[in-house]
Amino acid sequence: MLSERRLEVLRAIVQDYVGTEEPVGSKALTERHKLGVSPATVRNDMAVLEDEGFIAQPHTSAGRIPTDKGYRLFVDRLAGVKPLSAPERRAIQNFLDSAVDLDDVVGRTVRLLAQLTRQVAVVQYPSLTRSTVRHVELLSLAPARLMLVLITDTGRVEQRMIDCPVPFGDTSLADLRARLNARVVGRRFSDVPLLVQELPDSFDQEDRGTVATVLATLLETLVEETEERLVIGGTANLTRFGHDFPLMIRPVLEALEEQVVLLRLLGEAEDSGMTVRIGHENAHEGLNSTSVVAVGYGSGDEAVAKLGVVGPTRMDYPGTMGAVRAVARYVGQILAES
Questions:
Q1: Is 231 helix (H, G, I), strand (E, B) or coil?
Q2: 154: DSSP letter
Q3: What's the CA gap between 232 and 337, in Å, rounded?
């Protein structure tokens, strides 16, 4: 266990390196921070921190920089989440409140996160598997052709065309619509198959084929993999950090282009709490020089999707964590009110 003084030295090194982009020496630390000890004592503390793997010497200069292990300790023990200012909070609320639908909410959230953190922002669409049904609409387009519209509690809208085996009258359509909504509205998607499995048997023989076709389409909509959608923005921000990537920035950009990689990153985030993955904690080799800050968001107590940012390990962790948490909270409020 490190002493409190050495923890303070580590905190100062992280703060200075993030702010100046330069390796930090003992003389600079004692000049900038009120550590209450001599430069010689600070040098000794830095030697211990280096031996323990929390800081490293990048080249022959006297300065040190944090390692992944040092950033981890900083995040776990030393970094409070920096709250946003009142003007920042109002700006977030006003910007997101202007969204007209779910696609607009997600698009605005990505732009906002990228601007606030100056990192790469990633926002996952609300997962259908974690959503509940708000309404199912059935519309007649032709005697034997229907449109099914599924609306979720998160404001997501899915539309499907259905070709019926035989013509389906308006009375039967209204009856099916009413019975279907009575069973599934407010219920989790995972519960729907069991709730509707006996519904065709309650209709006249000539309508059962169409009812079964409608239900099959509904169930397919609930489980389609298109739910695993995400939007990414602010990739150009990485060009400001070229020297933070020891090899090349290309592996990072290639990793960010792979949806499955980003979905896995977000999937590692806890539903309710914030998750910070630093450097080599990221399984994908292309992201070993980055950190990921992610959190779940939702319309209630349960997260329906994740959002977060990707940036260099030399990151303003308190500020980034505060921005990610605040944006997630506002998005959740909008979904709850939609």
A1: strand
A2: T
A3: 25
CB contact at 8 A, 334 and 105: yes
Determine whether 309 is exposed, middle or buried from the number of CB atoms within 10 Å of its CB (0-12, 13-18, 19+): buried
Q: Determine whether 121 is exposed, middle or buried from the number of CB atoms within 10 Å of its CB (0-12, 13-18, 19+).
A: buried
- Helices (H), ranges, the chain: 4-20, 26-32, 39-51, 68-73, 86-97, 102-117, 170-184, 192-196, 208-223, 250-257, 259-267, 317-337
What pLDDT digit, counting tens, does each position of 131-150 carry?
788 899 999 998 889 999 99
The pLDDT tens digits for 209-259 are 999 999 999 988 877 544 568 888 888 888 777 676 666 677 788 888 877
The answer to whether residues 231 and 137 touch, using CB atoms and an 8 Å cutoff, is no
Query: Quick one: which H or E segment has residue 308?
Result: strand 305-312
Phi, psi of 203 (to 5 degrees): -105, 165
